[in-house]
Amino acid sequence: MQQFHKRRTTLSMGVTVPSLVFIIGICVLSAISPDFTEDLLNVVKNFIFVNLNWVYVWSVTIFVLFLIYLMVSKYGNIRLGRNNSKPDYSFFSWISMLFAAGMGIGLMYFSVAEPMQHYSNEIFAEKTVVQRAQNAQLYTFFHWGIHAWAIYGVVGLSLAYFTYRYRLPLSLRSCFYPLLKDKIKGRWGNIIDVFALCSTFFGITTTLGFGVVQINSGLQILNVVPESSFVYQVMIVAVLVSLSIFSAVSGLDKGVKILSGINIISVILLLLFVLILGPTVYLIGSFTEGIGTYINSFFSLTFNTHIYEENTQPWFYNWTILYWAWWISWSPYVGLFIAKISKGRTIREFVGAVLILPTLFNFIWMSVFGGSAIWFDLHTANGALSALAGNPDALMFSFLEYLPLTRALSFIVISIIIIFFVTSADSGIFVMNSIATKNAENSPKWQTISWGILLAVLALMLLNAGGLAALQSMTLITALPFSIIMLLFIVSLMKALSIDRKYYEKDFSRTTVPWSGASWKERLKQIVSFHDKLSVDEFINTSIHEAFIELESEFAKSNIQAKINSYENPLRIEIEIKHNIVNNFLYGVKNESRIISDYLLTDENLPEVNDNVTYFPKSYFGDDREGYDVQLFTKIELISDVLKHYERFLEIISEENNEMFISSDLNHKYK
């Protein structure tokens, strides 16, 4: 059976089986008892949103600040891969794919609906029409801007870094490597991947379910189908999921890449049509003013919990917190996909592109569509669009009726929604198979097809039973624990980046500076030796002590009184020259230990090591500068090193500007 399993599938049973049990169980429960399941999950969701909304606020804020810090920090030049790695995709293809996966159908679904819902919301009824329009644009920018992409960016960057820099599997478990080390290969790693697979499946299923409803509604308005019913939704899903499966089986370099390119071009053309055919001057002005308002309000929006505005708190929970939870729940899927296509980019390039470019496009898109809808509602529609704010499935197509070439634009919109549907589904199928196989290569095509069929069947089952809302609540609930996991990603990533930076910046040891080739055999023996405590004690008591004795004698010839101090536990010896007015000169050597990598214990081509603790003689100084390993110094070289530090000491105390740093008040710590 094991041989059959290896030949026929690349699925990891420890990840796939628990995930499928949980996914199918929740979907069946939502389909059998949609009202009961939705009510139960809503109680949990509402408790989280009301009592733990601050977790989302702080988490998302940390994500934004962290990525901005990385972009401008010294870590920005680190490449996602080897130092000579080149990107696998052109900049246009890369941006197209990450954009299509990151927002997709949501842009079409909410581009008119969200601004209109903010604009017509009763909570803002006391404001003037102009203030409500500005409010609608500002909050739409806030929900679709940098904060959303920062959530995706943290997961995508963590995955890309550990996959291509550490050469670990493209899996969420890999992001915990600095914290868990090899434990990521076992139960803990499986738990993390199960969570990611379930979250990805739920997020894609609900989004695609809503997308099918919007496509059906648009086709009905255009008289392509007579009604919006489950029969036609089955037909739509059958056609679109088949296209998605075909695209996913074709791979990233063919299906997903080509569709994403077509998608971004189509979206730009539609955007230009609406901009030119709509109230152009108004839209450009509102976009310009909206950017300024967003920048000015950035921090107040970011930290605002509406705790002093009880009347707006329900709106805050149902919009801002829901969005943060929604983006977080989608981040395993989008992050995995972004990571897959980002090999070879630098961290600065990755963060800049992921945060700024999609955000800017979203702002333009929302300004053109949302701004046009509000303008038409005020000047042409006489409030008809506001009245439809609660019906987002049909709102986009009703909005297009106020533009020239309505029918042509409507067909373009449906085409774009279909392409978004396919690109979201095919990249989702690709990502789910990647998680379930621990990023195994050359998976059989039937696996990819099976994920697509499962996605279609469960989405249709929930559509028919009315269980999509329950599944959406489940998706939002999973966002809370995953926000904590993402914070741990940041801790893990910073630990790894710090080590990465030190690794490439680490210079040769100071003890190698005076080397010549005269004693290379002895040097080699020292380099490949790992010492125990007793051998280092012996080195300090002999070579170091003898060097200090010779120095003490030579100093005396120049009427300089040097003193040798010796201490135990741990052993340390130092040579000290006391001063009454200025600091004492001190050069010492102590026995220190360090932990060595477990890999050294098992690697056959590395020096033989019996314990993961080794000892070495480390220098230290009277001014608390960081010392270094001196075990590779000969006695003469050590004497030379002491004299270098003494010459530095004399030069420092001779400068008048250094008087505040050389007071004898510090000498008490050496007595």
UniProtKB/TrEMBL annotation:
The record's section on InterPro entries has: BCCT_CS, BCCT_transptr
Q: What's one GO MF term for it?
A: transmembrane transporter activity
Nucleus recorded as keyword: no
Transmembrane regions: 12-32, 52-70, 91-112, 141-164, 191-210, 230-252, 264-284, 321-339, 351-376, 408-436, 448-470, 476-497
Q: How does it sit in the membrane?
A: Multi-pass membrane protein
Q: Which UniProt keywords apply?
A: Cell membrane, Membrane, Transmembrane, Transmembrane helix, Transport
A single GO cellular-component term on record: plasma membrane
- Which family does the record claim for this protein? Belongs to the BCCT transporter (TC 2.A.15) family.
**Name listed for the protein in its UniProt record:** Choline/glycine/proline betaine transport protein
Q: Which organism is it from?
A: Flavobacterium cutihirudinis
